[in-house]
Amino acid sequence: MSRRRSRFLRVPVEPFKVEKGLSAAEVLTGMERVSFQGRNLATARRIWEKMLASDATIFLGIAGALSAGGMRLILAHLIEHRFIDCLVSTGANLYHDLHETRGRRHFLGSPLLDDGALASERIDRVYDTLASEDEFCKNDEWIADFALTLERRPYTTRELLYRLGERLWNDTGNNGILTAAYRAHVPIFCPAIADSSIGIGLSQGRHRDQAAAQVDVIGDIIESANVVINSASTATIVLGGGTPKNFINQASVQAEFFDDRVSGHKFALQIVTDVPHFGGASGSSLEEAQSWGKLSMDSERVTVQSDVTIALPLLASALETTARKTLARRRRPAFDASGTRLVVNGRQLPDNRFQEP
C-alpha cells in the first residue's frame, strides 16, 4: 500500500535551463525554483518589486567598498530613478564616489601584488583594486576647501551631503551617487562620516578654521526617525551590512518609541557575506531583527549570502526590465533636503525633536 505524498513535498526543484539570449530578468525567473542563494536572489527581486508597489518609504544602506569596486553607477541609477527613497552610506563609499565624479579612477590590480612596492609609489590597494594616494590627498584638500565655503554652524550629514552633491554637480556635471541624490532630492545620511576620508577632509577644514566643519550626527538620528514616523510604512535594503544596516533599523525602533503606530519595517532585503553565528550586526539575521522590533512580525524578508558585486548587477538589471510600470505608478515620498530642516511631502520636520502624535 503506497503512502500519501508528504505535504512537504509539493513544489519540485526545476533545474535551470540555458537558453540563448536570456535577459537578466529571465535568468532570475529561472532561478526562482533552484536552491540556495540563487533562489534567494530571485526572491530578492520579487520582494523589491513588492516594495515599489506598496506605500513604503524605501531605505537603502550601503557598506563595503562598493564604489571602488565598480558599483557606484548602479547605485546612482537606483537613486535617479527612485528605486529607493533614502540612502544611508558609509563615508568610504561616498568618498570613492566623489573621487570618480571628480574625474579620477580606480584601477584593476591583484591581491598578490607586492604591497611594499605599491606603498613606495603611493598606491593604495583595496583587495584587487588600486588608486593613487596623491589623488586622494587632493580630494581631501578639495573637501576642506568645500567645508570652508559653508556657513559656520552645525550641519546634519543629510544637509552637508546635499551641499556636497550640489558642489560636485556644479563643478563637474558628472553622474555619481552624490550628484544623483542631489538632483533627485534623495536624502543621504552618513552616521559614521568621521570614519572615512570625507571626515579627514572635513578635519583639515577645521584645522584651517576652528569654527568650520561642524557635523551633527545626533540630528541624523532624529531626522531619520521622523522620516519613519511620516511614512505609511517602510522598507529596508542593505548591501554589505555595516553601520548603515543598524542605522536604518534603529530609525524604526526610535520612531516606535515616540509613535506606537510604528511597528517595524514592512519589507527587508539584505545582501551580505557575513554570517550570524559570530554575533556581529552585519551578519545578523532578519529574524533576529524582529526580536528588537526593527522589522514587523509579518514582514516579507530575504537574506542573500553573496558578494554584492555579483548579486547587484543582475538584480538591478532585472528590475530595470520588470519594475518600470510599477515605478511609473509609484507614489513615492517627496523630499526637500536642501535646508536645515528636512521636508517630507511638503511638511517640514520638527527641529531637533521627535515628532509625536
Structural class: alpha/beta
Counting DSSP H or I runs of 4 or more residues, the number of helices is: 14
Radius of gyration, Cα only, in angstroms?
21 Å
Q: Roughly how much helix do the residues carry, as a percent range?
A: 40-55%
Strand order of the largest sheet: 7-2-1-9-10-11
Count of individual beta strands: 14
Give the N-to-C terminal Cα separation: 65 Å
How much of the sequence is in beta strands?
A: 15-25%
Coarse morphology: globular
Low-confidence stretches: none
Summarize the structure.
By secondary structure, this protein is of the alpha/beta class. It has 14 helices and 14 strands.
Output the keywords.
357 residues; Deoxyhypusine Synthase; single chain; alpha/beta; 6-stranded parallel sheet
Topology:
Layout: H1 24-30, H2 36-53, E1 56-62, H3 72-80, E2 86-89, H4 91-101, E3 107-108, H5 115-120, E4 123-126, E5 129-132, H6 133-149, E6 154-155, H7 157-172, H8 177-184, E7 188-189, H9 197-208, E8 214-215, H10 217-229, E9 233-239, H11 242-258, E10 265-272, H12 286-291, E11 295-305, H13 308-322, H14 324-329, E12 335-336, E13 343-344, E14 347-348
Parallel strand pairs: 1-2, 1-9, 2-7, 6-8, 9-10, 10-11
Antiparallel strand pairs: 3-5, 4-5, 12-13, 13-14
Helix pairs in contact: 1-13, 2-13, 3-8, 6-9, 7-8, 10-11
